[in-house]
C-alpha cells in the first residue's frame, strides 16, 4: 500500500494554516513541521500538568506519567530498553556531554577515536577536541569528488586495536548518502571499538531499528522528527555503564539520567509521546489496528512507507538537477541510496538564490549548514555555500514540481 499523503498532511496543522498557504517547505533538514499529537500533548501539559513531576498530588503524578510514557514508547519503537533512551536540550548538547564522558574514560590511556569529515560539526568538533587530552583522533575521509564514505578506508584506521570509539553519521546533512551503519558497526566492534552514530539527518525519514543497526549510541533531534525541540540519545547499556556518570552523583545508578546533567524540559519530554502517537496513527491507517504488532514492527512498517514515498518523489528532482550544467549536485543521483536532502553548489552565493525562490513560494535555505568540513573536502567555495532543498514524507509530488519550476526561473 502506498503512503496516503492526504491522510499524512491532515496530521500536521501547518498544512491547514492560512499563513502557510501557497508555500512549499523545502528546509525540513533544519526542522520539520510538528504533528498534531505533539502539539496537543504540549498544550495539555502546559495547561494541566505544569508542576514539578513525580510528587504525590494528581497533576504531578499525571505529568510524570506522561514523561515516562514518552521514554517507554519511543524506546519500544526502536527496540531498546526504556532506560537506554534519554532526553537533552539538543543533539549538540547531548554529544557534548557524551564527549566529556569519553574524555574522562580515555584520559591517560593510549587510545584513539575515529571521526569523519562527512559529519555535521555537532558530531565532529567535540570529538576532535579530545586531542587536547592526548587522545589520538583519526580522520576517516570522504571521496573528494562524490562525498562517499568508504568502509574500506576505515579498516586501516582500526588495525592496531587502539581505537575505542568510531563516530560517524547515518547520513550527512549535505551529502545525504545513506551510510551502511550495520556494516560499519560490525567492523568497529570486531576491532574492539564502540560506535556513535549521528542520526539527525536520517531519523526524519524513519526512526531506527537499533538491533538491526548495531550502534552503541544513536543521536537525533525531536524537532526534526515532527516533535518538540529536544535531543534524543539512545545509548546501549554496555557502553553507557562503561562511561563515567555526568549527572548528579545520586543519579548515577539510572542509565537514562547518567548523561543528563541538568533537569530536562518536562513539557517537551512529555510531548515527545506524540511522535509515537503519530507513528501508530500511520500504521493503523495503512495496516489496520496496531494491537497485534509490536511497537518495533509498527515503526519498521511506517519507516518503509515513508522511504518508498520519499524515493518516488525525490527521483524526478535528482534527474532534473543532474541534467543541468550550471550547478553541481552533491551526493548520489539515485533516490534509493540517499535521504531527500539535496545540496547543490552554484556559480554564485546560494543565500540570494534561496531568497529568490521564496518569492515563488519555495521555502529553502543557503549556506554551509554547519557542514563546513564536508563542503571543504568537496572543494565547495564556502563563501557561496550550497543551496539545500530538503523534504520528508509529507512532501507531495506537486510540491516537487513547483520547486523544479521555480528553480528553472531563478537559476
Structural write-up:
- It is a single chain.
- The chain has helices spanning 5-10, 36-49, 58-78, 91-106, 125-128, 151-158, 181-190, 210-213, 237-242, 266-271, 273-287, 295-322, 350-358, 372-377, 397-410; strands at residues 24-25, 85-88, 112-116, 136-140, 163-169, 194-198, 217-221, 231-235, 328-329, 341-345, 362-363, 365-367, 386-390.
- The protein has 411 residues and is an alpha/beta fold.
- The strands form 3 sheets. A 7-stranded mixed beta sheet has the order 2-8-7-6-5-3-4, with helices on both faces. The chain has a 4-stranded antiparallel beta sheet with strand order 9-10-13-12.
- Helix 7 (181-190) links the parallel strand 5 and strand 6 (194-198).
- Helix 2 (36-49) runs antiparallel to helix 11, helix 3 (58-78) packs across helix 11 (273-287) and helix 3 (58-78) crosses helix 12 (295-322).
- 49% of the residues are buried.
Please identify the structural class as seen in this structure: alpha/beta
Order of helices and strands: HEHHEHEHEHEHEHEEHHHHEEHEEHEH
Calculate the mean pLDDT score and round it. 97
Radius of gyration: 21 Å
What sort of overall outline do the alpha carbons produce when their principal axes are compared? globular
Question: How many helix segments?
Answer: 15
- What is the spatial order of strands in the main beta sheet? 2-8-7-6-5-3-4
Strand content: 5-15%
State the helical fraction: 40-55%
Tell how many strands the DSSP assignment holds.
13
Low-confidence segments: none
Largest sheet geometry: 7 strands, mixed
End-to-end separation: 37 Å
Amino acid at each position: 500500500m502506498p503512503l496516503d499523503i492526504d491522510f499524512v498532511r491532515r496530521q500536521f496543522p501547518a498544512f491547514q494554516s492560512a499563513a502557510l498557504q501557497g508555500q512549499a517547505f523545502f528546509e525540513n533538514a533544519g526542522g520539520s513541521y510538528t504533528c498534531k499529537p505533539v502539539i496537543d500533548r504540549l498544550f495539555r501539559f502546559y495547561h494541566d500538568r505544569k508542576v514539578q513531576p513525580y510528587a504525590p498530588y494528581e497533576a504531578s503524578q499525571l505529568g510524570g506519567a506522561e514523561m515516562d510514557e514518552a521514554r517507554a514508547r519511543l524506546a519500544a519503537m526502536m527496540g531498546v530498553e526504556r532506560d537506554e533512551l534519554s532526553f537533552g536540550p539538543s543533539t549538540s548538547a547531548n554529544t557534548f556531554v557524551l564527549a566529556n564522558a569519553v574524555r574522562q574514560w580515555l584520559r591517560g590511556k593510549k587510545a584513539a577515536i575515529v571521526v569523519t569529515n562527512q559529519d555535521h560539526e555537532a558530531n565532529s568538533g567535540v570529538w576532535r577536541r579530545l586531542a587536547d587530552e592526548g587522545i589520538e583522533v583519526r580522520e576517516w575521509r570522504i571521496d573528494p569528488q562524490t562525498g562517499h564514505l568508504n568502509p574500506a578506508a576505515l579498516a586501516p584506521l582500526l588495525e592496531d586495536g587502539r581505537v575505542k570509539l568510531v563516530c560517524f553519521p547515518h547520513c550527512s546533512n549535505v551529502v545525504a548518502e545513506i551510510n551502511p551503519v550495520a556494516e560499519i558497526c560490525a567492523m568497529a566492534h570486531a576491532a574492539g571499538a564502540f560506535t556513535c552514530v549521528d542520526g539527525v539527518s536520517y531519523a526524519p525519514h524513519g526512526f531506527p531499528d537499533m538491533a538491526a543497526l548495531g550502534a552503541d549510541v544513536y543521536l537525533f533531534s525531536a524537532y526534526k522528527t515532527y516533535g518538540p525541540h529536544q535531543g534524543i540519545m539512545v545509548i546501549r547499556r554496555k557502553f553507557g555503564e562503561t562511561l563515567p556518570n555526568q549527572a548528579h552523583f545520586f543519579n548515577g545508578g539510572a542509565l537514562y539520567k547518567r548523561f543528563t546533567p541538568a533537569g530536562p524540559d518536562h513539557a517537551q519530554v512529555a510531548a515527545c509521546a506524540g511522535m509515537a502517537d503519530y507513528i501508530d496513527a500511520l500504521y493503523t491507517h495503512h495496516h489496520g489496528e496496531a494491537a497485534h504488532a509490536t511497537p518495533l514492527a509498527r515503526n519498521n512498517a511506517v519507516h518503509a512507507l515513508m522511504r518508498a514515498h520519499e524515493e518516488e518523489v525525490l527521483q524526478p528532482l535528482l534527474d532534473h538537477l543532474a541534467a543541468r550544467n550550471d550547478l553541481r549536485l552533491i551526493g548520489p543521483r539515485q533516490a534509493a541510496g540517499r535521504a531527500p536532502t539535496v545540496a547543490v553548489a552554484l556559480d554564485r552565493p546560494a543565500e540570494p538564490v534561496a531568497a529568490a525562490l521564496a518569492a515563488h513560494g519555495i521555502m529553502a535555505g543557503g549556506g554551509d549548514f554547519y557542514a563546513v568540513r564536508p563542503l571543504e573536502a568537496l572543494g565547495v567555495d564556502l563563501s557561496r555555500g550550497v543551496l539545500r532543498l530538503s523534504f520528508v514524507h509529507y512532501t507531495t509530488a506537486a510540491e516537487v514540481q513547483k520547486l523544479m519550476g521555480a528553480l528553472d526561473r531563478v537559476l
